[in-house]
Amino acid sequence: MSDNPVNMELHPQVEAFFDAATNTISYVVKDPGSNACAVVDSVMDIDMAAGRITYDHADAMIAHIEHEGLSLEWIIETHVHADHLSAAPYIQERLGGKIGIGEKIMIVQDVFGKIFNEGTEFQRDGSQFDRLFKDGDSYTVGSMQCFAIHTPGHTPACMVHVMGDAAFVGDTLFMPDGGSARADFPGGDAGELYDSIRRVLSLPDAMRLFMCHDYGPGGRDIAWETTVAEEKANNIHVGDGKTREEFVRFRTERDAQLNMPRLILPSLQVNMRAGEVPRDRDGNPMLKLPVNRL
Ligand SMILES: [Fe+2]
């Protein structure tokens, strides 16, 4: 990470799109020096009871990009989300752009390929994505230099994306009063999550941090933007000198009490395929529900 020049003079314009059904925040990030933009963590809508997929949330982002006359260069997934479906291919088909995720997606594909009993036609090499990022990899959005930091712990493939003075933290961190995400999914690890959070909090104090989720703890309004300084001082799980041991103990006890996310089964099947819905033998979109596997 130290090889990567952080440029706090560069202030990309960040437009947030909140999805109330899954408490996810998706972003359109615009390069200040051109009309290039990136999408971070898009959402595809699903009505599980009906097995119906729709695109209202993605359409709002597409409308914004078109209205502003932006050209979409990247569709970034901070990780394989377990609580919402990605709309990456839907957006790519309409606006172009490359779909990127962390290279450790291969671990996630291997684990969940087994759980969903996917056949040999399901590739476990990340080839469904256009780009697999390694720790410290850089890329550009227009003239803006961006880079990815590998932040495992919540999942093995989690990455934080830094674009100018803005960092998109995925589920590595929540707002200061929300703390951190669970670390008990397959391949998750509370100690690793703590170490990853420390790396993120070693970015400059003034770095803007954008969350992937917010649940408005204590009834406060939904929020998604904070700073490294605020997280360091106030994060209820990792701020103000909380030790690794304290964090691991707390996180492990808390995770043991959490239910699985409502959309974990459809989300993983779709998101490990870069947002494509799997198909049955006849080519119809079809989701599985493995019994007693999670
Ligand atoms: Fe997540």
Automatic annotation (TrEMBL):
<dbReference type="GO" id="GO:0006749">
    <property type="term" value="P:glutathione metabolic process"/>
</dbReference>
<keyword id="KW-0479">Metal-binding</keyword>
<dbReference type="InterPro" id="IPR044528">
    <property type="entry name" value="POD-like_MBL-fold"/>
</dbReference>
<dbReference type="Pfam" id="PF00753">
    <property type="entry name" value="Lactamase_B"/>
</dbReference>
<dbReference type="InterPro" id="IPR001279">
    <property type="entry name" value="Metallo-B-lactamas"/>
</dbReference>
<dbReference type="GO" id="GO:0016787">
    <property type="term" value="F:hydrolase activity"/>
</dbReference>
<protein>
    <submittedName>
        <fullName>Putative metallo-hydrolase</fullName>
        <ecNumber>3.-.-.-</ecNumber>
    </submittedName>
</protein>
<keyword id="KW-0378">Hydrolase</keyword>
<feature type="domain" description="Metallo-beta-lactamase">
    <location>
        <begin position="23"/>
        <end position="213"/>
    </location>
</feature>
<dbReference type="InterPro" id="IPR051682">
    <property type="entry name" value="Mito_Persulfide_Diox"/>
</dbReference>
<dbReference type="GO" id="GO:0070813">
    <property type="term" value="P:hydrogen sulfide metabolic process"/>
</dbReference>
<dbReference type="GO" id="GO:0046872">
    <property type="term" value="F:metal ion binding"/>
</dbReference>
<dbReference type="GO" id="GO:0050313">
    <property type="term" value="F:sulfur dioxygenase activity"/>
</dbReference>
<dbReference type="InterPro" id="IPR036866">
    <property type="entry name" value="RibonucZ/Hydroxyglut_hydro"/>
</dbReference>
